[in-house]
């Protein structure tokens, strides 16, 4: 019976009902970015767009899809170029270029932490405030991006590999006089108007097929409902329909052609009109789309295709694509781009979902807002999200916060309700950024975990949590999952012995304001690097190892020497603007870097290792890699080590005892307690665990 009740709901009631519905449904989406809102959300109830957006009520929107495989965005330039071309054909005035879109996609994927995923992008003319026909009335074009887990890999298995499967189906053709084919403009533009495609699918299902293959009034093959059609003839030629404006320029079909041409000897490829009768006589017929969707049509309109099963050509394509996605083999650098991860946690500030950079190098907790000026201009979006609202300390004197890398933020006080994990902490002091200066760098929001505030009037978050009775001690732990170093957990108020091997070995902190310990030496292939011990800061807001130029040159010299002893050749590298570049393939022969820390007197030293996969990073759109070893200013005597370089370890920071404790991380079964990931929101956020005041022996959610 239809429910005809139409009660008037408050905003809170509406959101509660919407959240309940979305939570009860199998929603695959992990994260959504909206340029209209200016940020990313992990709340499925908020993954929406305005009803007056022209894509909704006038169909003026385009979309495309990309794949994330093995932590890399695969074949992206092809998808993005088609995406922008579709927007141009649709008359949407894009304010984004390919680099802009890549940067945003990278940030959204990085925020999810997914290494195997699908990315769906939409560009629309934007909302207009009404339902007219003139797109010039729209406020602005909008970009929406959704990321969801890959359907082709079990991401719960750390050793699972991305494999492109090939389904077998019995297919049917559907003539254009039964379901009209799209006019050329809509056929060649990947618009959001797929009404006729949906009808093709429904008619194919009705006829006993699966997806359906369109043929025109002359019996010429066009495409499937969401895929291109390719055949291999009995003489070994691969044939696809011509891109004559009548069909979409399928990215997967184009990749198949490239794979064929790369074989030895090359498989001949051509594009021309294909009669449906030719498909009946073909050796193999496959339908392809979405990078990884390969379907073998083993029967068509009752005619058996080839041997009646998927053949060697289909297997060749699936194997080649699987290898590409796992290793990048055969792809240009711009089509196998690594995703850069940020050490972030999701929180709620006054009920608004935001992401904060976990920063042990600073005590201040602050957020970007919709009023923040970034390098003098409006801050139009960030992976950290934007707080909407006026700060409670509006009109107060601004406080300047400076960072090691030259960034500066002017913040104003704000009192907020801060939700950390399952705990909502009332009346927390934090800052809202008014001005952010960072030439060439992105702005960030911060969860400050520095031990003591050096700025007057700033109370560190840990101190506030202790005062409010949320935690008992001013300590926290950072844990990375050994089977996937891009996943982990932040625990406030204690440590969890289940997550590390042996005992936590303590190193004394030697500074009141920063997490500084004494570095006894650096060893490479057993050879010491330093002439004397040096101070070093543990900084989770940094992704590199920082030292003086003299020390960096010595480290690189030892890396060169080790490389030569293994390969018999000299390592080619160059430095530009303080960054050291080399060819990525050489990193396979780089040594482990060992850091040796001073413990208490007569207690021996603590040794931790950094493998090359953690201190080397790939450069997007380039065959080059960089060493995450950067020069610090000459007047800065303290070295820096980013926590992301230490992802093999469980690290506990204790401000009360003035020590950092370290142990090797171990795998933990997720059966007893759901691990809340630090950089991966596969499970719904929040990704932060708190130890209760009266029970520090275990995690409670």
Automatic annotation (TrEMBL):
Q: Which GO molecular function, any one, fits this protein according to its record?
A: aspartic-type endopeptidase activity
Task: State the source organism's domain of life.
Answer: Eukaryota
| Domain Peptidase A1, chain residue ranges per copy | 341-663
Looking up SUPFAM superfamilies in the UniProt record yields: Acid proteases, D-aminoacid aminotransferase-like PLP-dependent enzymes
Record's keyword terms, sorted: Pyridoxal phosphate
Q: Which InterPro entries match?
A: Aminotrans_IV (IPR001544), Aminotransferase-like (IPR036038), Aspartic_peptidase_A1 (IPR001461), BCAT-like_C (IPR043132), BCAT-like_N (IPR043131), Class-IV_PLP-Dep_Aminotrnsfr (IPR050571), Pepsin-like_dom (IPR034164), PEPTIDASE_A1 (IPR033121)
Q: Tell me one GO biological process term.
A: proteolysis
The text of the family note is: Belongs to the peptidase A1 family.
> Per its record, how is this protein called by name?
Peptidase A1 domain-containing protein
Instruction: Give the source species.
Output: Perkinsus chesapeaki (Clam parasite)
């Amino acid at each position: 019976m239809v429910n005809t009740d139409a009660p008037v709901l408050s905003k809170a009631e509406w959101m509660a009902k919407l959240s309940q519905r979305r939570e009860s449904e199998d929603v695959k989406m992990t994260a959504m970015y909206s340029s209209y809102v200016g940020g990313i959300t992990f709340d499925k109830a908020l993954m929406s767009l305005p009803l007056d957006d022209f894509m909704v009520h006038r169909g003026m929107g385009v979309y495309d899809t990309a794949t994330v495989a093995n932590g890399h965005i695969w074949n992206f330039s092809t998808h993005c170029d088609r995406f922008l071309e579709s927007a141009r054909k649709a008359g949407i005035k894009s304010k984004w270029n390919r680099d802009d879109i890549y940067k945003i996609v990278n940030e959204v994927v990085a925020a999810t932490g997914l290494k195997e995923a699908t990315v769906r992008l939409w560009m629309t003319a934007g909302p207009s405030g009404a339902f007219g026909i003139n797109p010039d009335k729209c406020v602005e074009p909008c970009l929406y991006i959704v990321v969801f887990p890959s359907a082709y890999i079990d991401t719960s298995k750390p050793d699972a590999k991305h494999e492109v499967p090939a389904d077998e189906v019995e297919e049917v053709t559907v003539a254009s006089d039964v379901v009209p084919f799209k006019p050329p403009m809509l056929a060649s533009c990947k618009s959001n108007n797929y009404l006729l495609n949906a009808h093709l699918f429904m008619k194919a299902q009705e006829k006993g097929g699966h997806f359906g293959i369109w043929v025109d009034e002359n019996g010429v093959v066009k495409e499937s409902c969401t895929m291109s059609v390719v055949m291999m003839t009995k003489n070994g030629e691969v044939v696809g329909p011509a891109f004559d404006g009548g069909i979409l320029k399928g990215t997967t079909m184009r990749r198949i052609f490239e794979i064929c041409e790369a074989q030895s000897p090359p498989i001949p490829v051509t594009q021309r009109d294909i009669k449906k009768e030719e498909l009946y006589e073909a050796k193999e017929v496959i339908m392809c789309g979405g990078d990884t969707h390969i379907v073998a049509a083993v029967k068509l309109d009752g005619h058996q295709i080839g041997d009646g099963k998927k053949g060697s050509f289909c297997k060749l394509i699936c194997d080649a694509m699987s290898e590409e996605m796992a290793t990048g083999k055969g792809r240009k650098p711009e089509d196998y781009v690594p995703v850069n991860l940020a050490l972030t946690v999701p929180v709620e500030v006054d009920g608004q979902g935001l992401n904060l950079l976990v920063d042990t190098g600073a005590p201040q907790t602050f957020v970007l807002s919709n009023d923040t000026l970034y390098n003098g201009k409006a801050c139009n979006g960030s992976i950290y999200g934007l707080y909407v609202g006026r700060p409670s300390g509006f009109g107060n004197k601004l406080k300047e916060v400076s960072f090691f890398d030259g960034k500066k933020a002017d913040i104003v006080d704000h009192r907020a309700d801060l939700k950390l994990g399952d705990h909502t902490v009332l009346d927390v002091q934090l800052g809202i950024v008014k001005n952010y200066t960072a030439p060439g760098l992105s702005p960030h929001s911060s969860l400050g975990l520095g031990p003591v505030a050096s700025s007057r009037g700033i109370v560190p978050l840990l101190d506030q949590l202790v005062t409010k009775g949320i935690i008992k001690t001013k300590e926290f732990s950072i844990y990375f999952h050994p089977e996937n170093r891009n996943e982990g957990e932040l625990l406030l108020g204690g440590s969890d012995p289940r997550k590390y091997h042996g005992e936590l070995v303590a190193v004394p902190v030697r500074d009141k304001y920063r997490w500084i310990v004494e570095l006894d030496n650096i060893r490479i292939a057993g050879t010491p690097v330093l002439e004397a011990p040096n101070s070093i800061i543990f900084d989770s807001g940094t992704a590199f190892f920082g030292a003086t130029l003299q020390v960096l040159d010595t480290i690189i010299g030892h890396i060169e020497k080790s490389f030569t002893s293994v390969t018999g050749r000299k390592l080619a590298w160059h430095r530009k603007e303080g960054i050291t570049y080399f060819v990525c393939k050489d990193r396979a022969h780089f040594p482990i870097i060992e850091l040796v820390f001073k413990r208490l007197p007569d207690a021996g030293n603590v040794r931790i290792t950094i493998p090359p996969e953690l201190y080397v990073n790939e450069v997007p759109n380039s065959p080059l890699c960089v060493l995450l070893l950067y020069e610090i200013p000459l007047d800065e005597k303290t070295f820096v080590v980013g926590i992301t370089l230490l992802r093999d370890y469980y690290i506990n920071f204790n401000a009360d005892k003035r020590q950092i404790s370290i142990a090797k991380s171990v795998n933990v079964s997720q059966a007893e307690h759901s691990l809340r990931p630090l950089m991966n929101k596969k499970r719904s956020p929040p990704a932060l665990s708190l130890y209760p005041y009266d029970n520090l022996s275990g995690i409670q959610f």
